[in-house]
Amino acid sequence: MKLLDRHYTVRSVDWADRYQRIRDALNVGPDGYVIHEAAEWHPYRREWLFFPRKISTEPFDEAVDERERGANTLIIASEDFSQIRTLEVGQRIPERGISSFKILPGHPNECVGLKSVEIGDRTESYLFCFNLDGEVLQDDIFIGDYKCEGLEIL
C-alpha cells in the first residue's frame, strides 16, 4: 500500500499480512485469488471496507474470470485487521463485479456503488445502493455500455 502525506511524500507500507487475512476470511485457499478495485476507510466506524471485484477459489483463467467470478461480498475489517467479517450484499451476478463504492455523506451506514462487466469487447456499468448491514437499497441501474472506473461524491 502507498501512503501520501500532506507534503506529497509517498511511503510504501507492506500490507501482505492484511491481504492474507482477507483471503483467509474469504476462504479462497492457496490456489484462489481476490481482485480489489474498491476499498474505503470508514472514519466513524474506524473500519476498513473492501468490496472485491472478483473472488475465486481456483487459479486465474481469464475467460472464466470475465464470465463467472464477479463478487457481492463486502469485507469489513477492524482498524488493525484483528477482526474481519464478510457480508453478502444482494444477489451475486457472476459477470458483474464492484469497481468502486463510496459512503454517502450524512448517511454513514449507506453506500453507492458501481458494478462493471468486461467480457471481451463488451463493457457495461451499473449503479446500485446498499447499506452496511448487507441490504440492497437500490437494485442495479444500467448506466451504459462502458466501464466507469470510479465514483466520487462532491
From TrEMBL:
The coiled-coil segments of this chain are: none
Q: Which cofactor does it need?
A: Ca(2+)
Listed under GO biological process in this entry are: proteoglycan biosynthetic process
Can you provide one Gene Ontology molecular function annotated for this UniProt record? calcium ion binding
SUPFAM superfamilies reported in the protein's UniProt record? Apyrase (SSF101887)
- Its domain of life? Bacteria
What InterPro entries does this protein map onto? Apyrase, Apyrase_sf
The alphabetical list of record keywords is: Calcium, Hydrolase, Metal-binding
Q: Which family does it belong to?
A: Belongs to the apyrase family.
- Could you identify this protein by its name? Soluble calcium-activated nucleotidase 1
Its ancestry begins with: Bacteria, Pseudomonadati, Pseudomonadota, Gammaproteobacteria, Pseudomonadales
